Amino acid sequence: MPTLERLRRGRHPLAAVVSQPDRPRGRGRRTTPSPVSQRALDEGVRLLRPEKLAGPEIEGALRELRADLGVVVAFGQFLPRWVRELPSLGYCINGHASLLPRWRGAAPIAHAVLAGDRETGVSVMRVEREMDAGPVARRRALEIASEETTGQLAARLAALTAELIAEVVEEIAAERVHWAPQDHSRATQAPKLRRADAHLDFSQPAEALVRRIRAMSPTPGAFATLHGELLRVLAARAEPGRVPLPPGTLQRPAGAPLAIATGDGWLLPTRLQRAGGRALSVEDYLRGRPLSDGDRLS
């Protein structure tokens, strides 16, 4: 969204916006446009919403645009060669939320948080067949705050992406853009998150569990089970110390915060959510659903 808004304010006219088809969204699962689609509709920009970039209808519509350049941000579909080379300049550019070649793939932000990286950033590259492997025109780093979640970091990176895309577009227009090849030997992968990635294994150190909780926030939300029911841990902090209990065991000393035994140190949850319930502070959660010393999360 920030990239669309930034380009819309720029001096180069937008030929069209290509976004995902309308999908069921929200609690009511009503079919609604994506945020990008909605903004294009509001701004009166031509909008294409193909299920797939294949077939004569979408090919004809894209060729009809006679665009000079294609700009891709979090599109979520593979771009066939004819799409990549369709613009009159012969290529598309992409704003990717990592310092390439680190974290190529669908979930670079979450993987950076999960790995405990101190910084990440944005790379603007040419789109090629191999995912996120094209030459790079611009990189800019951003420090990851100690308690920052994937959602919070994504918002900052989206704003940075918009600025870098706009800068590269101007360099391309002025014919002074420089493309630097990536060092493929240093590439790391950031595949799409699976539900299993959000599961909390309490045999791991508390610090690693905090990173996983941050990486999975806001979605899908890190989780464990208690008495057979799903329990999401949406925020937590780590506390060092000797842990004499089996991993996953709850401890509630009088006057002290709820603590969960881990493989190294204690995990102190600060925000919890049960299946079908609202996200609550740990204090509010415990008022409605008491937990006992010795209960064990799995």
Which percent band covers the strand fraction? 15-25%
* CATH class value of the largest domain: Alpha Beta
Largest sheet: 6 strands, antiparallel
Give me the Rg, rounded. Answer: 23 Å
Structural class: alpha+beta
CATH architecture of the largest domain: 3-Layer(aba) Sandwich
Number of strands: 14
Q: Regions with pLDDT < 50 over 5+ consecutive residues? A: none
CATH superfamily of the largest domain: Formyl transferase, N-terminal domain
Describe what this molecule looks like in 3D.
- The chain is α+β, with helices and mostly antiparallel strands and 298 residues long.
- The protein has two domains: 2-186, Rossmann fold (3-Layer(aba) Sandwich); 195-288, Roll (Methionyl-tRNA Fmet Formyltransferase, Chain A, domain 2), CATH 3.10.25.
- The protein is 27% helix and 22% strand.
- Helix 1 packs parallel to helix 6.
- It is elongated, with a radius of gyration of 23 Å.
- The model has no long low-confidence stretch (mean pLDDT 91).
Q: SSE layout and pairings?
A:
Blueprint: H1 2-9, E1 17-18, E2 23-25, E3 30-32, H2 35-43, E4 47-48, H3 56-65, E5 70-72, H4 81-84, E6 92-96, H5 108-114, E7 119-126, E8 136-143, H6 150-173, H7 206-215, E9 223-226, E10 229-239, E11 250-251, E12 259-261, E13 266-274, E14 280-281, H8 282-288
Parallel strand pairs: 1-4, 5-6
Antiparallel strand pairs: 2-3, 6-7, 7-8, 9-10, 10-13, 11-12, 12-13, 13-14
Helix pairs in contact: 1-6, 5-7
